[in-house]
Specification:
It contains 21 helices and 6 strands. By secondary structure, the protein is an alpha/beta fold. It folds into 3 domains: 16-195, no CATH class; 211-289, no CATH class; 295-449, von Willebrand factor, type A domain (Rossmann fold), CATH 3.40.50. The chain has a 6-stranded mixed sheet with strand order 3-2-1-4-5-6. The longest helix is centred in the C-terminal third of the chain and has 15 residues, at 321-335. The two termini are 45 Å apart.
């Protein structure tokens, strides 16, 4: 996808009194924020090069590239690591490191950052694909050093699983970075990689692409042998259903799956195309949050269900941005001692006390997906808070309000689940970007520190 696009700055060159005030896409006055804040809001909910409701993926990527030189190198490096390790994003951290490699002020941190953000073997090659997106150029010394340090992390299974016939292959990375094996066994492994003689991994992708047995037989064997990880299992429920897999095997696998690293929105998304298995999916979802420490006191959740939130996270995904918002709401519902949930769009509505999928259904059915009147929704919530005071209010939104958004009267968190340029959740709000469990940990740690 083309990355070089014309960059326009609103009001550039105009006298101060004529410069346009930053606004959300729906018209509200947006907060004036620093370059570091702008980079964070563009990165931490970004599925790289995927279009969002208001902006194209190219526009978002270009803004990230423009902002990197304006932010201190150590802060860009820390953001790349945060995006990969806490927010579980894969491609945008690689873009950040690629942009760091262009800059004399930033490239000194490239190697150590690259080692931390490369956590899957295919990211070795994907980084080079991003590095060469505008044409092949020599790799910098820091890039070679980082790739060479990252390469030995992966065993034969990982290398074989991700050694795909793409434009850049893993052996190409190995030749270019001159990585040194840690021992004779790894040296022999890399020789097999170069020769194309790695042991074929027994993964669902390999099993289904190899032909031979029909899909149902392959799926059932993988289930019986526990060869599907949690995410692979959730993502393939529809495929198993279409293949006619024995339902009992699916239910046993869902009940036995490890859930400690699976966020609620994954279960919500799986249930969109496998509603007949909602009961067991919900049980697994509750296991995933069962051990979480509770947030003390009374929490108010205000969840954005406006039209801009009902959009896919990516072209190949059935997950919607509302799935991310509902998943965070489900998570916060489980980790809060006391909680009341509201949704908002053109209006605001209090949701009956529900949990899990019932909470998702109530939020989904609550309001028409219209505009984003966040200011009016906050007024509504604060009016009810006169009778029922709260300890914190958490707003989950893409921040594209049509009306003025006041500061919270108490402790308030604005959780931004999109990458749009401007937003309203600053000033009196504690602003948080992204939708992983790191959001909850941040709130807990911040309040403990205070």
């Amino acid at each position: 996808m083309k990355l070089n696009v014309l960059k326009l700055t609103i009001g550039q060159g105009l006298p101060g009194f004529m410069r346009l005030v930053p606004r959300t896409y729906e018209g509200a006055t947006a907060a004036a924020i620093s370059d570091e804040q702008a980079l964070r809001r563009s990165v931490l909910a970004c599925m790289l090069w995927e279009n969002e409701f208001y902006e194209s993926g190219v526009t978002i990527a270009e803004r990230i590239r423009t902002l990197v030189p304006k932010v201190e190198a150590a802060k860009v490096a820390a953001l790349a690591v945060e995006a990969r390790t806490k927010m579980k994003l894969r491609h945008v951290p690689l873009l950040l490191v690629r942009e760091m490699a262009r800059l004399p002020t930033h490239r000194g941190l490239v190697a150590e950052t690259l080692v931390q953000v490369i956590q899957r073997a295919d990211e070795l090659a994907e980084f080079l694909a991003i590095y060469w997106a505008e044409g092949k150029v020599p790799l910098s010394g820091q890039v070679k050093k980082g790739l060479a340090a990252a390469f030995p992390k992966f065993d034969e299974y990982a290398l074989a699983k991700y050694d795909r016939a793409n434009a850049v292959r893993l052996r190409d990375v190995l030749f270019l970075c001159h990585a040194k094996p840690v021992d004779a066994a790894q040296e022999a492994l890399w020789k097999r990689l170069i020769a194309g003689e790695l042991a074929t991994p027994d993964t669902w992708e390999v099993a289904l692409s190899a032909g031979g047995l029909d899909k149902r037989t392959n799926w059932e064997r993988l289930l019986l042998e526990r060869k599907l990880g949690a995410l692979a299992l959730l993502r393939n429920l529809r495929n198993m259903q279409e293949a006619g897999v024995d339902e009992e095997l699916v239910l046993i696998a869902l009940d036995a799956m490890r859930t400690d690293r699976v966020l609620p929105f994954r279960f919500l998304a799986a249930a969109r195309y496998a509603p007949q298995w909602e009961e067991v999916l919900e049980r697994a979802m509750f296991r995933s949050v069962a051990e979480a420490e509770k947030l003390p006191g009374r929490t108010v959740l205000l969840v954005d269900v406006s039209g801009s939130m009902v959009a896919p996270l990516s072209r190949q995904s059935q997950m919607l941005r509302t799935d991310a918002a509902y998943g965070l709401a489900v998570l916060l519902r489980e980790v809060s001692e006391k909680v009341v949930v509201y949704t908002f769009s053109d209006g605001a509505m209090r949701i009956p006390p529900r949990r899990g999928f019932a909470l998702r259904d109530a939020m989904e059915a609550s309001l028409r997906h219209g505009g984003t009147r966040l200011g009016a929704a906050l007024d509504f919530v604060e009016g009810e808070a006169v009778r029922e005071p709260y300890d914190r209010i958490v707003v989950i939104t893409d921040e594209q309000s049509v009306d003025r958004v006041p500061a919270p009267t108490g402790r308030g968190y604005m959780v931004n689940v999109a990458s749009a340029k401007n937003g309203v959740g600053y000033g009196g709000w504690t602003h948080i970007d992204g939708w992983s469990e790191a959001v909850i940990e941040y709130i807990r740690e911040l309040e403990a520190a205070n």
